[in-house]
Amino acid sequence: MAKLVIIGAGFAGVWSALSAKRLTTFVNKESSLEIQVIAPEPSLVMRPRLYEANPSEMVHPLGPIFKEAGISFFQGVAQAIDTKMNTIYARSIEGVESTITYDRLILAAGSSVVHPRGISGITHNAFDVDSLASAGRLDAHLQSLTSLPPSPSRDTIVVCGAGFTGIEAAAELPRRLSHIQNARIILVSSADQVGPEFASSSRSVITQALTELGVELKLGAAVTAIDADGVTLASGERIPAKTAIWTAGVRATPLTQQISGEKDNLGRLRVGQHLRVPSVDNVFATGDAACAYADAVGKHYVLMSCQHALSLGRVSGHNAAADLLGEPLVDYQQAAYNCCLDLGGWGAVISAGWDRELSLSGAQAKKIKCYINQQLIYPPGGLEEALAQANPLLPDSDELFRQMQEAVA
Which residue segment(s) compose the domain that 275 sits in? Predict the structure, then answer.
């Protein structure tokens, strides 16, 4: 029996496993392939929702669906990969060292927030919403602020980075800080614009929403230091604040560095249209670990986003299994792109295309964002529905958004 091992149980890892299982069922070769997932916990963290309150609730158990599908699970951490020996060296949560061999490997270990070395105190003093644990620490900290005497530093929260995560975190804070009277929320960015990756039509609405929510903007302002009581900017200005949330940038799992092959500036492995690492025949990369073209013309690279991870996972799982079972592989292609940005109590913004031109905003956009966050990104409870959704050739983003608009209408 051949063995497919998947490192990671995020969106790409989960759907890799389910897509591989789907293929074995479809071609009636379930006894020909063992599928194993390696991850610290048998659960899917809803990472796109960690800017919200109560992040401990943003977890979906995977044990039942894996058991029903016959997917084995190793609870632990992959520490090293030897691609010449087709071997993974892992440590279980009990601390036991294990050697796991594979015939095909899918690296789906995701990414993590970057702490720039040039910013003094960032590691010890900044919060983030990158993981369940770090989001939980922030949540507990925000709730504990009322135990401190009122002061400008207690009542001020600085969000560092005005990209996607920073905007969503800042927009949600007014609701999360309803227990703090006169809370001050400041969004700081070295960029000259909020959401610089968005088109001006979308940026204007985002700026309007943040202003109406009472979020202050400090643009063109680089952070140089973060301590327990404040944030210092390159201009020398110091903002008294006991809460600094760092959202500026992520980098692919360090495990990509153990696999030979070209990487991009985010540490992602460059892969072909089948999501195989060109220099290592037996290894596929997916999700945030993969740098792939989203379109056939090679104009746009995939983003480190849930939207792309879901599709990347379905394709990588299918192809790794197909490679072992002698079945046809499929090209990864996700040329259409739509982006839905949460703006807290104000609503949301939906932008269309890679230029992110404004498509929809306000309450109706918020309904779609809630549908995505609370339903769409969650795996189905039953195996039959999960395997149906694991098809690597599902509708593109444009069609999916049309379906969502109909669903929430």
Answer: 2-112+251-335
CA distance 252 to 224: 24
Task: Please list, residue by residue across 176-213, b when 16 or more beta carbons sit within 10 angstroms of its beta carbon and e when fewer do.
Answer: bbeebeebbbbbbbbbebbbebbbeebbebbbebbeeb
Helix (H, G, I), strand (E, B), or coil: what is residue 223? Answer: strand
Examine residue 361 and state whether it is found in any structural domain, yes or no.
no
pTM assigned to the model: 0.96
Q: Are 120 and 193 in contact (CB under 8 A)?
A: no
Q: Which secondary-structure segment (H or E) carries 178? A: none
| β pairing state of 357-362 and 347-352 | antiparallel
Contact 4, 283 (CB under 8 A): no
Q: Which residue has the tokens 């070395």?
A: 117
Residue 366: inside a domain:
no
Among 318, 315, 368, smallest CA distance to 339 is for: 368
Asked, for residue 41, whether it belongs to a domain, the answer is: yes
Write the pLDDT tens digit of every residue in 275-295.
999 999 999 999 999 999 998
CATH of the domain at 148: 3.50.50.60
Strand order in the sheet with 347-352: 338-343, 347-352, 357-362
- The first and second tokens of residue 180, run together, are 């703090």
Q: Position 48: which residue type? A: P
Q: Are residues 244 and 255 in the same domain?
A: no
pLDDT in tens, 321-333: 999 999 999 999 9
Q: In this predicted model, what pLDDT tens digit does every residue of 230-256 receive, in sequence order?
A: 999 999 999 999 999 999 989 999 999
